[in-house]
Amino acid sequence: MSAAQGNILFSHSGGVSCLVNIVASTLHNHKDKQKLFICRNGISGLKAHQWHLSDDFTHWQQIAQSPASAFGSSRVYVPNVTDNALFYEQLFTQFKKDNITTFLCNGGNQSQNIVRRIHQAAKALNFPLTCIGIPKTIDNDILQTDTCIGFGSAAKYTAISMLEASLDLQSMCHSASQVVIYQAMGRNSGWLAAASKLASLISPNTPHMVLVPEADIQQTNILNYADDILTKYNHLTICIAEGVSLGGDSNLPPGYQLNQLIENHLNTQNHVVIPDYLQRSARHIASTTDIDQARQLTLEALKLAKLGYSDIMTTIVREKDTPYLWSVGHIELEKVAGYEKKLPSHFIEENQMNVNDTCIDFLKPLIQGEAYPTYLNGMPNYYPMKLWS
């Protein structure tokens, strides 16, 4: 039976973002005559054979405008078929009962590995299944796609937060704190930290420093540069990626390590800001570009599934920088699954203390447009997360 005739199973995987519900809602609204099943708590539900019909959910418009996942997600993995064929035999038995012939999953580079493993298992066990990945991560570190679902909105939040914190600091730096250190998500890549530099579109030089894992960062250079900035402006704004290593044996997050370094050597009063989940859940200032791309990546996955494609991931293709023109495409999973896309070296200033105008020009189109949720009693009218335990 072809994918076009059978039903669809969809799963979130890994950390959520403010737009993952748009993927599910797009699938629900465009599934034709197929049934759409949604995994309970992501891949955990897949492994436990727990999924629900999308028709059992109501308030889809409210779900679509809400952050996080209305259906849950998880950070779990699946085995190779060579290690545990029984797992897949049991999984596909349940798939057959529910007439599931298409598996779609949105997630980061490791989640794409999950899609690939399920495809390989289906092929090895001669089970008719189409498997397609949809790129989602605010880290923006998946290869072969211009951007990923959630990144543009997280980048917008980061830039706005950096801008607002900088203005606050400048107002008080003559009598209070002189330094704000903002720690952005990004375990191994500096894409989100780099996005903080978009604040300079409104407030020149903000932030004064952007420290990313891809740069060659030396403590002495940080201190010398920080001292120069403080002498010139009497305040200092820094964005540092959570994956930056400052050396030493400290178990503190890099933002606090940097705080100690600057306080101890430059005798300043500092503030450290670690927004953590706020970066990926800020649906109230989502990027319209990000939303449009989330929908199109999902629609492309549906189209390709009907055509019988498998072992692929849908992608955003940048056609032109100015004006920003993009299209959707796809790439074989073997070329992206498990790999990481680093911030390019030509996006980093020669002194390694910041990102440059080339980086700003690349990122700027991804944060364009506002798509505010509806409000109720002065609050965003988000879906109340009526999840199963």
TrEMBL record:
It comes from the Bacteria. GO terms for molecular function: diphosphate-fructose-6-phosphate 1-phosphotransferase activity. Residues 8-302 form the Phosphofructokinase domain. Its EC number is 2.7.1.90. It holds the Pfam family PFK. Keywords: Kinase, Magnesium, Metal-binding, Transferase. InterPro entries: ATP_PFK, PFKA, Phosphofructokinase_dom, PKF_sf. Transmembrane segments: none annotated. The keyword Transferase applies. Its cofactor is Mg(2+). It catalyses: beta-D-fructose 6-phosphate + diphosphate = beta-D-fructose 1,6-bisphosphate + phosphate + H(+). Coiled coil: none annotated. Catalyzes the phosphorylation of D-fructose 6-phosphate, the first committing step of glycolysis. Uses inorganic phosphate (PPi) as phosphoryl donor instead of ATP like common ATP-dependent phosphofructokinases (ATP-PFKs), which renders the reaction reversible, and can thus function both in glycolysis and gluconeogenesis. Consistently, PPi-PFK can replace the enzymes of both the forward (ATP-PFK) and reverse (fructose-bisphosphatase (FBPase)) reactions. NCBIfam families: PRK14072.1. Belongs to the phosphofructokinase type A (PFKA) family. This is Diphosphate--fructose-6-phosphate 1-phosphotransferase. It comes from Candidatus Comchoanobacter bicostacola.
